[in-house]
Amino acid sequence: MQLRKARNSDVGQIRSLINDMAARTDEDHKHGHMLPRSLVELYEHIRDYTVLVDDDNNVLGCCALQSSWDGLAELKALAVDDSLQGQGWGRKLVEAALSEADNLGIDCVFTLTNKHQFFEKLQFEIIDMRKLPQRVWSECTNCAKFMVACDEVAMTYLGAQPRQTYIPAIGVNASAAAQAALGLAPSQRGVMNGPMNSNGFRPPFAPHRNDE
Length: 212
Ligand SMILES: CC(C)(COP(=O)(O)OP(=O)(O)OC[C@H]1O[C@@H](n2cnc3c(N)ncnc32)[C@H](O)[C@@H]1OP(=O)(O)O)[C@@H](O)C(=O)NCCC(=O)NCCS
Description:
seven-stranded mixed sheet, 2 domains, binds coenzyme A
């Protein structure tokens, strides 16, 4: 058994592993509870995946780390085949993702999960979901449980807090007329009070002033 980065040719097996688990009922709380993944998503994001394979290259576990925002990455699609659960492979897959995050310069790794006892063992801590930027909710909004029956919590490694960002009321280069239509004073326009940092190098949105 070994961990390695996934290859394009692993997609079929990763899909089966994840979607077989996703198809299970909520009663099987240990094994079920995963979002299904489509083939196109897996092919597009295959570089995010680490897989657990046996000597014949059968995929028996997987985990993805997806860079999603300024300093932020999501740990997702974690699964270990039933036959190998309880042997430490889930932990190793998470550790591999954390190591990748470190190499990428990510300082906040989050996951959305209902397995919080598992992740607590790996030094993840529950945080207020609302601290996550809106950018990360696209998958949730497609879920039938979103807002009405969700049983997940947001957790981050070591309890790191995501950097806060704010969306400007209007594009910084929008016309003066459009800005005036929103009642924005000239002092609220442009680089000084806008989201872009003047050196063009730092991330595009400045922190909320209250959170600095
Ligand atoms: C969750 C899952 C990945 C754990 O994998 P695993 O290989 O069995 O986990 P490990 O053997 O590495 O366990 C690491 C530790 O977590 C504990 N643990 C494992 N599953 C747990 C669970 N469901 N709840 C609480 N603790 C759990 C283990 O006892 C172990 O503790 P220890 O270090 O004190 O001995 C696996 O059960 C799985 O694939 N489940 C179905 C898919 C899923 O739910 N994925 C998560 C989606 S958010």
